[in-house]
Amino acid sequence: MNCVVKLTQQMRTEDLRYLQLLERLREGQCNFEDYELLLTRVVGESSVSLREPPWNQAPMLVFRNEIGTQLNHRSAIHNAVEVGTNLMVCVAQDFCKGKPVEEPALPKKLLQLSDSKTEHLQGLLPLVPGMPVIITQNIAIELGLINGMNGIFRQLVYDLDSVSTDSLSKTFPVNTQYVHKPIYALIKISKSKIEWNLEKLQPKLIPISIMEQTFQRRALPLVSAYSITTHKSQGQTLNKVVIDLKLSKDTDDIATIYAPLSRVKRLSDLIIWRHFDYKVLQIKPSKSQVAEIQRLDKLYMETQKRFSE
């Protein structure tokens, strides 16, 4: 890379005071007034409630994929109860050398693996009509069906003979229906670039079919989006979000704090679900991060000179 363009204007954040806080945060220079400002958004300190709209529908950002999966499963179970339907769980099909895994104990163990180890194809995907989902694979880039795209699950099309109530996980209720051969899911994707309506489908309703990865797993390329990781949220602008700023002791990366705080346009668009330590706002960029910024700045100056001639 020998050409760099530097964006000098923050286009997402509309709240000036909050923008100044974020600028200090990037340098690890937040002051106590910044800390006190963020404390006004902590659940219990502010007037908002997680049980009321819009916060009961806002995604929660978490640092670890495993925690996000647990929260998504619990939210799907709760949502199924709320709408009065049995939970439906899509079961991935795992293969070894092109053949289904036959070792009796192995299939269940494979289904419990984190999707970060299975090329982002979940072993057990709970689905409830109306729930938020995220596409996890690039399906059709030119149509906007890309990794990270948000949508709303509407309906599952599947082989009727593949449904079973035999439990595959203690996480889900006993009346859960396990679908072993899903065909495709109908997802409403508002930001899709498809300009025509598919036959017999409502506008923006897109069929997302099962995919197969080199891990030798066939599954729907979807995950629940009640909760998403901070890594997955990068590049997104969220209308409302619930975040957690309480870090584990071994975490000292400034991005883990900056990413969740910078996903919204205004401070009023986020709430923090528990108290956090002031020192997390003073994490400094690492030496490697500083070196990379300096390298890019140098390339930016050279690019300006090259194209000004």
From TrEMBL:
SUPFAM superfamilies: P-loop containing nucleoside triphosphate hydrolases
InterPro entries, per database record: P-loop_NTPase, PIF1_helicase
Top-level taxon: Eukaryota
Name this polypeptide is given: Uncharacterized protein
Organism from which the protein derives: Adineta ricciae
